[in-house]
Amino acid sequence: MSDRELESLRRKKLLELKRHLEKKTETEVKEEQAVNKQEILNRFFVDRAWEVLNAAKAQYPQAAEHVENTLVNLIKAGKLKTQISGGDLYGLFRRLGLRVHLQTKITVLEHGKVKSLEEKLKEEAS
């Protein structure tokens, strides 16, 4: 093998390692940003806010990501100082024209037992 061939192989290998390192670093930065967003929002989210945000992400991924980033930026800038409940976040999505569908379940407490509304109605019908 000539010196030129060896140098070419070294450059190629070095370029591959550089790409791999950049890709790995980029992935780590994205994971770190996701954790930071969760930590920031966790300080302000109360009630069912995470449930609403996760449902919105599943139904409207781009819009929910934009809302999430905007909330984080407002919190970082100190412009948002109040806690955000699930109802508040749901209302925000509604005002933006996004109908976030949440799974709801109605339960009834009767004689120390928790029953679904369906079970309760069946018992009363029979």
Uncertain segments: none
- Tally of strands: 2
Biggest pleated sheet = 2 strands, antiparallel
Overall mean confidence score, pLDDT: 88
Shape: elongated
**Could you say how many structural domains there are in total?**
2
Instruction: Assign a percent range to the helix content.
Output: over 70%
Content of β-strand: 5-15%
List the total number of helices. Answer: 5
Tell me which oligomeric state these chains represent: single chain
Strand order of the largest sheet: 1-2
Order of helices and strands: HHHHEEH
What is the radius of gyration computed over CA atoms, rounded to a whole number of angstroms? 25 Å
Name the structural class: mainly alpha
Distance between termini? Answer: 90 Å
Task: Characterise this structure.
With 126 residues, the protein is mainly alpha-helical. It has two domains: 1-43; 45-126, no CATH class. Helix content is 71%, strand content 6%. It is built from five helices and two strands; from the N terminus they run H-H-H-H-E-E-H. It has helices at 3-44, 49-59, 61-77, 86-95, 117-125, and strands spanning 107-110, 113-116. The chain has a two-stranded antiparallel ribbon. Helix 2 (49-59) packs parallel to helix 4. The protein is elongated, with a radius of gyration of 25 Å. The N and C termini lie far apart (90 Å). The mean pLDDT is 88.
